[in-house]
Protein: Flagellar hook-length control protein FliK
Amino acid sequence: MNVQLLQTLLEQLPPSLKKEWSLRNGQTVYGKVEKLFPNDMALVQIGGRSLVAELKAPVTSGEHYWFQVVATGENIQLKMIERSFNANQPLDETKLIEQLRLPNSKHVRELLKFLIKESLPIVKEDVLKAAEWLKTADLKTGLQAIRWMYTNNLPFTNDVFQAMIAFQNEKPFHEQLNQLQSSLAKAIANMPEKEGALFQLHSFLRDWPSVSDFSPSELAKMFKKMIQWLGLQHEAKSEPLTDETKEQLKSLLIKALQECPEQETKKEMANVLHRLTAQQLFSHDQGPIQQIFTQFPLLLGKHWTDVTIQWRGKKEKNGKLDTDYCRILFYLTLETLKETVIDVQIQQRIVQISIVNDTPNLQQAISSFQPLLKKNLADHHYTLSSIKVIPTAKKQNERLAPIEPSSYKGVDYRV
Structure:
């Protein structure tokens, strides 16, 4: 899968689905006072986000300051540490290094330049941690990981950073699992006891199902089964395997990591585990709005591919999911059509489908199947509005049109 395309589509979230980063007590942040209000209140811009806060110090509108966060919640309180540069003086990493008394290293400089460019919050504690993490990763990949951590309001920990790194792995997930299976086969070949989590994990990967294992009427069941096998509901902590968790990839990986004597194989397992964690981190609720993200390998005939599904929608008050309003994106690499993204938007049971693909004359080929698709959707009380093919380059340069949150009634995740 084209990681750049996947990144582009992942980031085009409607405003209602974006998770804002949150301030934490004790943080030191850099901000600009945009407007003053009575009773020591002010509109302050921090990392591209404007918020109303109580300032216990005289400040000037238009000026930049260093603040310490002393209270969060409904009433944010900021304590001014010192005035910084005036509004007409550009902010650069050199000034920040001096202001924050940071080490003048390559990774600190590159990180600060990136945070300034992306209008992300500049927090001294986070800068020190992230600069250390960047030493272990490709710089571009590491900076992208940090951006996702901020924009998705994820915990600022090394484990989450590693998950964001793993998510950007260019190697397809099915190749990664196949390589792990081969490594496990070598690791267990000379082990006297043919039992334990390493053997269970090897057997689990060896018996990964294909589409041919399911009838057409069971495809929805297959997708749900795949999600269960990945173990994405399993908490990432060490615990004994039970009948309920032993057939889940994540629980087997956690257990096998403790038993594996081979460092290289342990590294491969850790990378797969981080990749699964990334899926969990990109799946989240924000109030009634949900985003579900999952990726799994699938054998289509003799061709292995990764099926990636990103679903966005809203639940009703009773917890049920309404099929009338949702958006589902499918990413996969097909044997003939190669890299393909299918963008399905449903509003009031009216379906619009966009297929992102560079195959010549694909629109004409799809048109011949459109009547059958229209009929099958109508049998389930949906109306096909349109189906069109969009070249990859065009899709990467345009924003995905958001689904208006006001029109939501709830959503069902049905594949």
